[in-house]
Every structure is written in structure tokens, then in C-alpha cells.
Specification:
The chain is of the alpha/beta class. The protein has 2 domains: 159 residues, Trna Endonuclease, Chain: A, domain 1 (3-Layer(aba) Sandwich); 114 residues, no CATH class. The chain is 46% helix and 15% strand. It is elongated.
Length: 285
Amino acid sequence: MRDFNTWLAGFRDSISDYGYYIDFEKVHRNIDGIKVELNILNSLIGSKNIESDFEKLIANYPNVLKCVPLLLAVRANEIYAIDKDGAFTYTFNKQTLSVEQYKIFMKKTGLFDLIENHIISNLVDYATGVETGLDSNGRKNRGGHLMEDLVEGFIEKAGFIKEENYFKEMYIHQITDKWNIDLSAISNKGKMEKRFDFVVKTDNMIYGIETNFYGSNGSKLNETARSYKTLAWETDTIDGFTFVWFTDGKGWISARNNLEETFDVMEHIYNIKDLENGIIGEVFK
């Protein structure tokens, strides 16, 4: 018998890898797509007549408009703005308003001031910084895959081969069709379509695997623990199918009671330390 408190004490604060923080490949790729236009806009830096110079620039190089949203840290081709002078929707992938209106936008957003008064010295460098900041918002998505990637690494280390005896993101109907197994007990008789993060197939068993990592607390943890406890009960009634849950993260401390309830009734619930100790080789047989 495993001790829940000892098991929980081994949970990690973080599993962030080196690529979690910023995807610089994506940052540079996005900047490369507008580098020419940004360098053309660089000609406005320090301009003494920025409005007239901007007007001439747009007349000759209208494509430079597509850079403008990024200078405001916006990922969109359209920006809506309203004040006492009216409401306008500015389109930047093509010119849809007069150049005078775009000049008003540049002035009221502060971009003219930024460029004219040498607050920045190079728009390519500035835009790279903005892209880097915007990419930090992608950490949540990258973080959601970290536990999956970690578990997959251990599955492969145990000798399983993708698309041969382990599969990623399989739905109940796909498992049913592939191995002719009745999973109606966990699909509400076919009315609910659940997807498992991984499925491992051995000679004797099909393992449906869920993975997650919670570095911070939240109401979702209690819901997850309850739903997986129910899923464990339901799968216990299915011959030839076993539910396995890999979870970790200090966020569980706040939801320890619900997690412990699941731990008490679920045979195959493991953390990263269990993975490191070779649990996959012991369970998946």
C-alpha cells in the first residue's frame, strides 16, 4: 500500500523546459515576414516633418501599414478605436481609409511620438521585443503540453513505438473500432465522446492514459479529481481496459482532499517520481 502523504510530498513545483519561456524561432519567423516594411518605416525615425513624411511613405509603400498593429502589440489586421471625434475601424492589411485618418491613428496612439522623438532607434529591434512579449502569452499553451511530452518520453523509453503499440490522442470510438472493445460504460452508451491523451496496447491489455500538471491551484482541480475517480470506477467494469492517470504539480496541495479520495480508489494513479522509478515498465504488460 502506498502512502498518500508521502506520494503527494514528491510533487514538483514546475516542469518547465528550456523552450517553455519564449519560442524565439517563432518570434524571428514573424519578424522576418515584415522586416522589409519595418526597415522602410525606420526612415521616419527622428523625422522633423513626420506627418508629411508618413504620407509620402504610404503613397509609395502602402504595405508598411501591415506593421502598425504589431507596434502596438496587437495581433490583428483591424483595430477599432473610438473617442469624442468618432469611431473608426482601421484596416492594416490594405488601406481602406484616407491617409489623413491613418495619420490621426498614428498620432493619437502615440506611435508618431515614439518614432519622431527617438524614443526608439530601430523598429526591427523594437518589433522583436514586442513579439517576444506577445509570445510569453503562449506559455499557457506550451505548458499544457509539457506533461504530455514528458509522459510520452517515458513511454518511448519503455520501448513502446508510436502508431504501433502506443497512440496519441485517441477517441473512444477509435479505440472501439481498432480493437473491437466495448467501451460503452465510459461513453454513456455511445452518447459521450471522450479522448485519451495516450493509449498503450500490449498483448493483454489496452491502457487509456490521461496526463496533467497543475503548478497552481484552482477550482478545476477538484472537478478533475472527481471526474477521474468516476472514470476509474467505470473502467473497472471493462475487461481488457485499464485507466491510468499521470499527474503532478504543487497546485494539488489546495485540492489534496479530493485527490486523496481518488488516490484511495484508483489503482493506477502516478506522479513524475513514479515515472522516473520505472512505473511504466511495471504496469504496462
